[in-house]
Amino acid sequence: MRSLPGPPVRQDEPASGLGPTRSPVHASSGTRLGTARPRQEGPTDLRLVPPALAAWATAALVLDAHPAWAFGLVTGCLVIGCLVAVGLPPSARRTRRARVASWPRASAAALLLCVAAAAASAGLHGADLRRGPVPGLAREYATVTAEVELSSDPRLTRPKVRGDHVAPTAVLIDADVLRVQEAGGTAVTTRAPVLVIVDVDAAPPGRVTGGRGRSPWLGLLPSTRLRVSARLAPAMTSGDRVAAVLRVRDQGEPEVVGEPSGPQRLAGRLRSGLREATDGLPADPRALLPGLVVGDTSRITPELEEAFKETDLTHTLAVSGANFTILLALLLGPPGLAQHVERRGLAPRLGISLRGTAVLGGVLSLGFVIVCRPDPSVVRAAACGAVALLALATGRRRSMIPALATAVLLLVLYDPWLARSYGFLLSVVATGALLTLAPRWSAGLRRRGVPPRLAEALGAAAAAQALCAPIVAVLSARVSLVAVPCNLLAEFAIAPATVLGFAALATAPVAMPVAEALAWCAHWPAGWIARIARAGAALPGGGVDWPGSWAGAALLLAATLVVVLVGRRLLGHPWWCAACGLLLALAVVQPPPLTRAVTGWPPPGWRLVMCDVGQGDAMVLAAGEGTGVVVDAGPDPQLVDRCLRSLGISRIPLVVLTHFHADHVAGLPGVLRGRAVGAIETTGFEEPADQAAFVRRLAAARRIPVTRAAAGEQRRTGELSWQVVWPPPSPPPDSPSWTPPGTPPGVLPVRPPAPEGPNDASVAMLVRTAGLRLLLLGDLEPPAQRALARSPAAEALEGVDVLKVAHHGSAYQDPGLIRRAAPRLGLISCGEDNSYGHPAPGTVAALRAGGAAVLRTDRDGALAVAGGGGELRVARD
Fold first, then answer.
1. What whole-number distance in Å separates Cα of residue 138 and Cα of residue 130?
2. Would you call 149 exposed, middle or buried from its count of C-beta atoms within 10 A (0-12, 13-18, 19+)?
3. Could you tell me which of 764, 813, 807, 812 has the C-alpha nearest to residue 788?
4. Tens of pLDDT, residues 279-302
5. Distance CA 402, CA 110 (A)
6. What is the pLDDT of residues 452-497, one digit of tens each?
7. pTM for the complete prediction?
8. Which has the closest alpha carbon to 343: 355, 353, 333?
């Protein structure tokens, strides 16, 4: 135990009659450094907060302002600030009372000078977007040859469903144009930030993105110089930090004219070594570990990313201040003991002082920035993480708020575009919550009997969530109710996963077997984090929709304040706390019997549910308790998963994908999420090829057999039975006398027409359940509908109870098939305000003219058909 010299200690019974003596005071584990330095105590110094906030707001406003306006603001603030500063009385430097009296004037002068500096920096950065020939060429959509220097890692766009297809995959790279030459012109030297978009879907077969066919564009490092032939276009939205968009058609290997810098090559080797070390891990840890360590999210699947968004764990997928904090905590030990004399960690064991630890932390920060790329988000993370632990390392807890304000001020002056970054806003708000609210809330919980370590973790998670949730609501239009418990459960695994991941990163270049062993150890906590995210996202009431605007953010902040005030009173009443906790748990878990009793959804005895999945198709046929046959999966995994969860479906004996258009199959990951699936049945016409391959990859990963449907096939499960009525079996190519199965004797066989596209190859089904007959037509077009009306199954189609109208109720329908089916109810699945005009007024009118009631998901939401024995009921969600 270390001893510190202390003040004289009075002894009531002096030994040997010698009177009071001086003796050393031995510090206990609870002694804080601040006790020996009373000058550190006192009110928190907030003088730097207003200048930092003023500079932040100024930078956000001035970035796209006219240069004359920015110059006027800078000049005015400088003049007024200097006059205020000059007007300070000379006595302000003599006595403490005079200095205190002059603080308001000094603060006003500092605020004005910071505003002037922010306006000047933002004006210069904004002018970069308008300077040189690039903006003018972009307005003309000119084709140019440009030399660019990459400033970020290449990244793939996430697949997005647009109508019935998936948008082409592209590689996005931030870069600076150094030289530009228009066709037939001369090369001009310039420097303008651009966004490079490489359409990698144009790549030759066998050289696709991802996996072994990874595009060579994805292997480029920042600071690499390229020569590209591309078309310039204006920035996609106003307020972007790019002067133009440079669209490149991927024709092969990029033309490299300048190699990356040495630090970037080193960082690239470390990052690729970490990816190699994690190659043998299970899917989730393999994707998550590079994101936790260096922010490499290239392996994160859309499904896993959505789960992290639903639980507000997205911060673990990117480099943040938490990563840096964990690394420095290795030096200091637990942050709660950083101000104790008997601190822990590597630094005191190595005999390093607090100041030496801070210096070593600075060196570690530099290495962190180099490995994780020195882009603004990494610089922000390192600065905010350094602020928190540097203050702890020096034992000056009350200097943390001024230090945070200083970091914000310097970062905004260095890169004004951070002032418009939601990531920067979330980082600063979260750090501020941990410095201000978290200690108070933790102390309050401890006073009420909560164990100290749990109180500290709960206070930190609740404080960060309370202040960050309104900002997240603006971005996602959704509020997570499971964010705090999910973050608490994941918190225990983040530190070991990060530490082991960084150890694997450091050892990979020199000892790959050791790195693989460390990565294998790290995959346990990483897998735990992924399981927490998936479990939280699977809860039916894990989140609620919220207005995605700043007005909605203000409303959420007010609601949070009310919850906090009411919660403080409830903490003194354990029974009330238990009742509120039980109600919240029921709202989140939503047990099916309770949900049905409260909301009436799903209705008892439901037979068919048409899910509301936007512009697409997804239906569920009841096949027993918790069991359903799914017909199509819609365009969005989240929407179809939410529909299946609301119905309590956990077992799916068969998934029928009528055809491979994206608005019918892109949501398949949501159908498979956490459910036992027996088989997938599809059409034999495998176009579009990329979506057919997508389905087969998913099925192979889950070891689900894939079969082809053909007319004449009949199946049954419980009370549910169905018959495939289209498409007919493909005739052998050399059999002119071939007769389709099911053709009655003496009837002239009808040779089916070759499908003109995926729609005409849709799987159509006649379903029988509880005495009801349902005809599901997929996206059949009029040629296939007319052939179906003449097929052997035509008689069975007459007088059905429910018709799932083909192709979202488009105008392309065969009137003869509608008249033959004569449905009592027509169901149309389409998206609200879709650009296709679905459903067509003529189609709706034709159905109603035949006596059918027409319901549509864009206006009526999810639709459930119930009844039996001829009785037909419809419920809306």
1. 11
2. middle
3. 764
4. 989 989 999 988 888 878 888 888
5. 14
6. 888 888 888 889 889 989 998 888 888 888 998 998 898 888 888 8
7. 0.80
8. 333
